[in-house]
Amino acid sequence: MAQLSVSARSQMQERAPAGRSPAQETWRHLLHSKSALIGGSLLLLIVLVALLAPYINLYDPIKSNMRSPLQAPTLAHPMGTDRFGRDVFSRVLWGGRLSLPVGFVSVVIAAVAGVTLGLIAGYYGGYIDTVIMRCVDLLLAFPGILLALAIVAVLGPSLLNLMIAVGISSIPDYVRVTRGSVLSVKERDFVLAARTLGVHDRLILFRHILPNVMAALIVLATLGMASAIITGSALSFLGLGIRPPTPEWGNMLSEGREFLQRAWWVAFFPGLAIMLTVFAINLLGDGLRDALDPRMRGS
Amino acid sequence: MLIFISRRLVHAIPVFVGISVLTFAMLHLVPGDPVMIFAGDKPMTEERAVMLRHQLGLDRPLYVQYWDYASHALRGDLGVGLRSQRPVVDSIREALPGTLQLTITAMLIAAVVGITLGIIAAIAHGTWIDTAAMSFAMLGISMPVFYSSLLLLLVFSFRLAWFPATGQGGFSRLVLPSIALGLASSAALARLVRSSMLEVLRQEYIVTARAKGLHANTVIVRHAVKNMLIPTVTMLGLQIGGLLGGAVVTETIFSRPGLGRLAVDAISSRDFPLVQGTVLFAAATYVLVNLVVDTLYAAIDPRIHYR
Question: How far apart are CA B301 and CA B299, in angstroms?
Fold first, then answer.
């Protein structure tokens, strides 16, 4: 928040009672939001567990152990074993080390591209705006996961391509939100003042306009991470993302699907991991939205 | 009205052109020589590659190839599948009814469950019913379609044996996939219906209606629900994309023949004409459906004028 422009800061302070800075005010609301607290701590726990996987693991997540295939959950294997006798618990922990970054990196790709395009389209308007928005319309013409599917079809399945595909397919949201906010901010006095002073366009965009879009973007990126994790694991589930034997929640679920009738645990736990992660992120996103948007407060 | 629709159609033309350019470009964006894709795993000599390239028209300038592709597509000719050796249009025509059946049923489930849940939560605002409904909705939007599908299969097909697990045909094979597919949309819808309902309930005309002594149910049904329908229809329109996309996963899990599975199988077997055809068809249909939703939207809301 250190980069808030002066005028935006004073505007937000008008709304903030008791002389707290907007950042403090947001924190206060965030800490009072039950959903943000539950979601945030759950997500933190999931990320920590995934990070620490190499240190807390008892079993190799990839090496097979043919003596104990498809064992039901026991104390030794709290989530059972899969068809190669691999410990499902270990694989779920290791899987997080791929599924979580896929969500994060694709959001970064989408946000960087989308925000830049949105700023340009909104600020310059005219011909550039029309061209950018037509391209966005075109991306939006491919329903749901289909765009990501088509991109993977062209690039071929791999971790990087998966991130690129998921990232590109969520660019439109960022362009639209950024452009909309730019349009509402760019005629305001502090932008006009900066322009009159001869401040360079790039500086106006990043120092004066972007901070005003930030709140909406933080919420969008958080919720976007949830859907990116779902899309990423869906592609892996369909065999078009990360391939086995590398553990990833989507491909584990797909392997477990074949044994659903005999060994429910092989599919159940990776799926649960995806759901809990997405649930935590959605809760956090909802809490963030309430905390960052003064209009939502108290409702 | 007619002018409104035709204007929107005209606006959609650049999008259609864009879609066709993108799907055409797919084949040429794939790393490597397109001829190799058509040849598949068969061994390839230099002469055969030249011959095949000529036969497929790949040695012509790109714009000629695109023109050829686009004009054929307009006439309903999307080429021949590499693996099946059948016209792509025939494969799509066969797969379409399954997908339509699935998405329409899922949409109905989503609309009924989502709107009911949202209205109940809004009326019971602040009570445990509201909390319960919204927690359910939160779980619903966090549940990936492939996971809810597997859980439904596990419980209702394998454990309870109420419904068959896979295949197409008959009502019983439609129940589980459409519930799985409709669940996420219904959750998203419930959240939106609740918040727009809460907003409507705060409006002055609702207060007036209550003040003049109308029955609570009359106020809800006659005054509130009507006004809440507008954002809801928009949201339902937006959900169509999610449903069509979700069908890809649902059809694969429940082994139902449909467009989604056709596309996934085509991508896995690198059957590019089939990939291009299904993607082109899905995108074009989606644009048309959105156009219909826009028109509906204008028809529901008298404040929107056809321009």
Answer: 6
CB-CB under 8 Å, A134 with B18: yes
What would the pLDDT profile of A113-144 be if each residue is shown by its tens digit? 999 999 999 888 889 998 998 889 888 888 87
Which chain A residues are closer than 8 Å to B158 by Cβ? 260-261
Q: For residue B296, what are the CA distances in angstroms to A181, B33, B276, B306?
A: 28, 46, 30, 11
CATH code for the domain in which residue A174 is found: 1.10.3720.10
Q: How far is CA A110 from CA A131, A151, A170, B291, in A?
A: 18, 14, 6, 27
Mean pLDDT for A198-212 is 83
- For residues B68 and B96, membership in a common domain is answered with no
Q: Is residue B283 domain-shared with residue B247, that is, in the same domain?
A: yes
| Cis preceding-peptide flag for B257 (omega within 30 of 0) | no
Contact in structure between B81 and B271 (CB atoms under 8 Å): yes
Into how many domains does chain B fold? 2
Work out the percent of chain B whose per-residue pLDDT is above 90. Answer: 2
Residue numbers of the domain that contains B131: 91-300
DSSP states along B219-279: IIIIIIIHHHHHHHHHHHHHHHHHHHHHHHHHHHHTT--SHHHHHHHHHHTT-HHHHHHHH
Summarize pLDDT for A70-83 with one digit per residue, the tens: 777 777 777 777 77
Same domain, B145 and B282: yes
A278 at interface of B, judged by CB pairs closer than 8 A: yes
CB contact under 8 A, B26 and A271: no
What ipTM was assigned to the predicted interfaces of this complex?
0.83
How far B254 CA sits from the closest chain A CA (Å)?
A: 11
Does the pLDDT value for residue A60 go beyond 80? no
- Smallest Cα–Cα separation from B278: which of B104, B85, B96, B75? B96
pTM: 0.84
